[in-house]
Amino acid sequence: MSNPVSLTEHILDQQRLNPDATGEFSTIMTQIVLGGKMIAQDLRQAGLLDILGSTGDINIQGEEVQKLDQRANDTFVQVFESSKIVRTVISEEMEEPYTVIPAERTGKYAVFFDPLDGSSNIDVNGPLGAIFSIHRLSPTNLENGSSLYLKPGHEQVAGGYILFGASTILVYTCGDGVHQFTLNPGIGEFLLSGSNIKMPARGKIYSVNEGNRQKWSNGVKKYIDHIQEVDVETGRPYSLRYTGCLVADVHRVLFKGGLYLYPGEVNKPEGKLRLMYEAAPLTFVIEQAGGIGSTGYERIQNIQPKTPHQRVPLVIGSREDVELVEKFLKPEMS
Ligand code: AFP
């Protein structure tokens, strides 16, 4: 590759474009990169270290904590603590927000993250991910206590993910396009491998856990039946791809089009996925690439969060595909 651009250089170039930049945001991004490299190193040798299996604890999600979930969480917390810039971190693995900087210091940023997405894949060497979302805190936020950091997705300053797959890839946006970097393990650097990524307006792949079909609303069932019908003119049936890792499935959608769905269920309308550190950052990326993130009833980025671990249904992908799901679900809107 001629003139490889490292992620660090790219972050600093983005900083130079912003006359008000103080370098603090760039520092946070470089800490996320460091955390990603450390987790990638752990995953490459997980089977050789005593870091597989569960810790025996149950997290706020009511799920058994895998040793690597905890290790990935501790890695990100440590890198943010050393940055001395992040004020608060909110993690899927921690019930309460963690104030990294003592209140008397004026840390300007809150970072939300899912340190290891796709935990059911850990013991079978399947794809895994990490998801991050960065919000800037205004002085009024700092006075508001618990509502300090609960801001809608359209106020994110950055969002992205790391995909630990055949290669380790970092994809992020600051609102100025979607950029992809691939880790070169030989030199320990993420190098630019995709700029201003744009996704197809419509795809031919859908990603959903069909095993949950009996729990879905009629609107969701009718949509899935629709894309499974044989109709060559409209490119149906779609193909089903589902890895059990949201990051891997959304990354496929980013490049090939189509959509990922984790709908609400009749007895659990809020669904499984988390707004602040799963749906919102991935929607930031997908919408910067020309797609849509929706609950099926409303757009993800407009939701005013009420709690840090709030769940939402998620329908995310190509614009035309998501708009069609919203049409199928419109009759169900209360
Ligand atoms: P885990 O991290 O608990 O495996 O959950 C992964 C996830 O949040 C998302 O990455 C997957 O798309 C989805 O849940 C898989 O959930 P199901 O196993 O219910 O399909």
- Overall residue-averaged pLDDT value: 91
Can you count the beta strands? Answer: 15
CATH T-level fold name of the largest domain: Fructose-1,6-Bisphosphatase, Chain A, domain 1
Q: CATH first level of the largest domain: which class?
A: Alpha Beta
Task: Say which CATH homologous superfamily of the largest domain is assigned.
Answer: Fructose-1,6-Bisphosphatase, subunit A, domain 1
Rg over alpha carbons:
19 Å
CATH architecture title of the largest domain: 2-Layer Sandwich
Following the backbone from N to C, one meets helices and strands in this order, namely HHEEHEEEEHEEEEEHEHEHEEH
Characterize the structure shown.
This protein has about 325 residues and is an alpha+beta fold. The protein has 2 domains: about 5-195, Fructose-1,6-Bisphosphatase, Chain A, domain 1 (2-Layer Sandwich), CATH 3.30.540.10; about 205-334, D-Maltodextrin-Binding Protein, domain 2, CATH 3.40.190.80. The protein is about 30% helix and about 25% strand. It contains 8 helices and 15 strands. It has helices at about 5-15, 25-45, 65-85, 140-145, 220-230, 245-255, 275-290, 320-330, and strands spanning about 55-60, 65, 85-90, 100, 110-115, 130-135, 160-165, 170-175, 180-185, 190-195, 205, 240, 260, 290-295, 315. The strands form 3 sheets. It has an 8-stranded mixed beta sheet with strand order 4-3-5-6-7-8-9-10, with helices on both faces. A hairpin with a 4-residue loop joins strand 9 (about 180-185) and strand 10. Helix 1 runs antiparallel to helix 2 (about 25-45), helix 2 (about 25-45) runs antiparallel to helix 3 (about 65-85) and helix 5 crosses helix 8 (about 320-330). The longest helix is centred in the first third of the chain and has 21 residues, at about 25-45. The chain binds 1,6-di-O-phosphono-alpha-D-fructofuranose. 1,6-di-O-phosphono-alpha-D-fructofuranose (AFP) binds near residues 63, 117 and 244. The site of 1,6-di-O-phosphono-alpha-D-fructofuranose (AFP) has 11 residues, from loops.
